[in-house]
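S1.2 Input.
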Amino acid sequence: MAGRFDKLMDRLVFRRVLARWARVAEDAPLMSLEALRSQRARARQMRRELDRVIHQAEYRLALPVIGATAIRKPTGSDWAWRPDLWKGKIPVPGLSSVAGRTQICEGGTIFHDCRRSELTVRQIRNSRQSDVAPFGFRMDVFRFDGSFLSLVLDLPPEAALGLKLRHLIRLDVIVEMEKPLEIFARLNVKHGPNVEQIVRELPLNEEEVMVEFDLAYTKVNEKRIEKLWIDLIFEGPEMNQIILRDVTVSRRPRAEL
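S1.3 Output.
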């Protein structure tokens, strides 16, 4: 009952405040300068608080909604995952002059060997109707005197749970670039003291940017699989802006013959 009363009072107060400011706006052309100055000061105070509410509302209600977990899972998938970098707000959204081996967030690290870093990274808010991930990741690369630039994504323990050689691991990426470059994806599978690596080039000229890693052609000991991670390797990134709108990983067992 108290909740209903409070809501009713809120509506009544809101209507009275709105009506009052409507009258002030109508009377403003005829007010004395002293009165107008006083009303302007009050209006500015109120506008600051209103702008804060509007800013948060537009940020949180923009599409896609923060916290959305929708993933386009290929048919037959038994596991699918989106890294935190594209799923939720990270503690430090942007960095400049990023050093080699810099952790961007939990499970996401930038590697490069530049002597002088002119790399800036920032988590951005996706807002297009076609976007599924709430956030994107932007890299602005200026002068680049290194030999490699990569973003390393640690896969969660669930990726290795029950993983067999008959599994296909799929990587889906939505990427935008200022100018063309090559991007390679490398799957790393740690099994015992060894690490098996599979490299694929992302088909950036195709509508669906995805690659699959077939474990059947590896020498992985499936009984000793401990962890997996993926390196996204950017070739010739100098003077380019690269936006990864979404990155998802899934796996599916190959159909039994």
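S1.4 Remarks. The chain has a mean pLDDT of 90.
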